[in-house]
Amino acid sequence: MISRFAPSTTGEAHPGTLLSALLVWLDARSRGGRALLRLEDLDTTRTKATFATQLVDACTWLGLDWDATIVQSDRTARHEAALDQLAAAGRLYPCSCSRADRAASSRRAPDGGWAYDNTCRERPLGDWRAQTDPLRLRLDDDRVFLVDDGGRDLSQSPATEMGDPVVRRRDGVIAYHLAVVVDDADAQITNVVRGVDIAPSTATQILIQRALALPTPSYRHHFLLLESANEKLAKLHGSIPYSALRAAYSGPALCGVLAHGANLIDAPGDVTPAELVASFDWERVPTEDRLARFVDGRLVISAA
User: Fold this and answer.
1) How confident is the model at residue 230, as a pLDDT?
2) For 2-66+223-303, which CATH superfamily applies?
3) Which pLDDT value is given to residue 239?
4) How far is 178 from 211, CA to CA, in rounded Å?
5) Do domains 2-66+223-303 and 76-183 have the same CATH topology?
6) What is the SS3 assignment for 232?
7) What's the topology of domain 76-183?
C-alpha cells in the first residue's frame, strides 16, 4: 500500500493542508503502508521555493515523516513522454477557446466550473511542442462507474459532463490532470486520499489513466475545512497561515486540535500522529465539511 500527500506549493500551509497531510499519513501508517510527499510546483506563476520549504517544515513540526519526497518540477521528461504517447495515439488537439467561450454555453460542470463542449476536437495538432494554444486530450466517450472508499458515488461521463481536459497550458506548463496521473503511476501509488473538492475530477483522471494504459488506484475523499467569507462558506485557504499556527501552538497541540476536529480523539490535547495510528478508523472521521475559525489566537473547528 503506497499513498501520497500532494500539496501545491502556492502559499503557506494552513489548517486544511495539515489536516489532509495528517489523514493521508494516518491512513498509510495504520495499514503498514508507505506515505510519500509530492510537492506540486508546476504552476510557475504562483509557486515559490519558500512555500515548498515551509511545507516540509510544517509537516515535520506536526510530527509527520515521509518515506520519500518527490518534487514535481523534476519530472518534466516523464510528463512530456506522456504527451508524446498521447500525440502518437491521435488524442491531442490545440484549443483556442477562452473561459468566456465556455461560459457562453451556460453549462456547469460537476466541479462548478464551465463545461467544455469539445469545440476544437477536429483541429489538427502538428508538432505539439510548437503549439502556442493550450492542448486538450480527446477523452473516450465512456461512462466511468466509481464509488470511492468512503462511499461517494463519483460515476460520471467526463467527456460530456466536464469536457476534454487541458493537459498543457498556453504558457507551456503541464496541467494538473496529466501530471497527477503520470506521477501517481510512476510512484506506484495504490491509494489516493485527498479532499472532496477534487472528487469531481476523479473520473477524468481515470480516463487519462486508461488512455496511457496506466493502473487506477483506489480513491477516498475526505471532508474540508471551510471559512466564512462574505456570509458564505468557502474552502479554507490563506486566512490562517502556518506562521500564525506555529506562533500559537506546539506541533503536538495543533495535532490534537486537528485530531479532535476529525473526531479521532474525544477532546483536544497534546498528541502526536504516531500516538493516533493504533486507533485510527475512517468510520470516526466526519463526512460533512467543517468550519475553521481563528478566535483569540486559537483554532476552533466546528460543524459548518
Assistant:
1) 60
2) HUPs (3.40.50.620)
3) 81
4) 11
5) yes
6) strand
7) Rossmann fold (3.40.50)
Q: Is 124 exposed, middle or buried (0-12, 13-18, 19+ CB in 10 A)?
A: exposed
The CA angle 224-48-198, to the nearest 5 degrees, is 25
- 84-98 in b/e form (b: 16+ CB < 10 A) is eebbeeebbbbbebe
Residues counted in the chain: 304
Nine-digit cell string for 239: 486566512
Q: Is the pTM of this model over 0.90?
A: yes
Using one digit for the tens of pLDDT, what is the confidence trace for 90-146?
999 999 998 888 888 788 999 989 999 999 999 999 999 999 999 999 999 999 999
CA distance 268 to 278: 18
Q: Which residue has the cell 495504490?
A: 190
Domain boundary assignment for the chain: 2-66+223-303, 76-183
| Backbone angles phi and psi of 291, in degrees to 5 | -95, 135
Closest-CA residue to 254 (of 27, 19, 20): 19
For range 241-261, the mean pLDDT: 96
